[in-house]
Amino acid sequence: MGKVLEGDLIEIVIDRERLTGTVHLVGDSAAVFGEDEGARRLAARGPRPDLRPHPDLPDDTRLWAALAQASGGVWGGCVYDADRIIGKLELTERS
Questions:
Q1: pLDDT at 77
Q2: What is the pLDDT of residues 33-86, one digit of tens each?
Q3: How far apart are CA 68 and CA 61, in angstroms?
Q4: What string of H, E and C letters represents the secondary structure of 26-72?
Q5: How far is CA 74 from the centre of its chain?
Q6: Cβ atoms within 10 A of the Cβ of 83, count?
Q7: Is-above-0.70 flag for pTM?
Q8: Would you state the torsion angle of the CA atoms of residues 12, 65, 45, 56, taken in this order, to the nearest 10 degrees?
Q9: How many angstroms separate the CA atoms of 67 and 60, rounded?
Q10: Is residue 38 within 8 Å of residue 14, measured between CB atoms?
Q11: Which of 48, 61, 71, 79 lies 20 to 30 A from 85 at CA?
């Protein structure tokens, strides 16, 4: 996921009936564009270089984050997928 920059125009839509929401990049300091172009631009940007875990993050929190990421990450619901985690561990052991 790419970084949001100073000057970006962000559209936030909340549907209170369906209990859903969306966030889209729809412009920057030079132009206004649609959500598809915004998604393309965000994907091309990459993460911020200063984005990293806090050095004092507890081991149990780091382990939870690694297991959640191996299971599909925050967009996968942050629930453990045992088969997926085991498969990744087996691939690592073979390397």
A1: 67
A2: 999 999 999 889 888 788 888 999 999 999 988 888 888 877 666 678 889 888
A3: 10
A4: EECCCCECCHHHHHHHHHHHCCCCCCCCCCCCCHHHHHHHHHHHHCC
A5: 7
A6: 9
A7: no
A8: 110
A9: 11
A10: no
A11: 48
